[in-house]
Description:
The protein contains 5 helices and 4 strands; from the N terminus they run αβαβαββαα. With 141 residues, it is of the alpha+beta class. The chain has a 4-stranded mixed beta sheet, covered by helices on one side.
Amino acid sequence: MAFLSPQDEQAVTKEFEKLTGPVTLTVFASELGPENNGQTVSLIKEVAALSDKIAVKVLNPHIERDETAAYGVSVTPAVAVEGTKDYGIRFLGVPAGYEFSNLIDSIIAVSRGEAQLKDETKTALAGLTEDVSIKVFATPT
């Protein structure tokens, strides 16, 4: 079952023209997990097929335990979005619906190695003295 319509594919392909570097989408999913594990793997593979700059790695957290732990993933399905480095971007659950555009934006940001933030925001963030973990929760309504 395809997740993306031809119009969606066309729009995402156009967005992916902004990619400048490689991106790896690591999917943590298990056949033993809920049905949306398979849906997540399928969706991520569809998205990755739209650019030769995107690679997909699928890990079974029950088998690749050490690597899963290194990513800090404790629930599935999950997707880590990495460029030349790991910025800590994780999607928990299927990144569809409202989260889909955030997935695409994250892929572009890690590919470019820089988030598109205002100078004032960059200055404020540069003043932080310790690491900060930001979690965004979304639910369709």
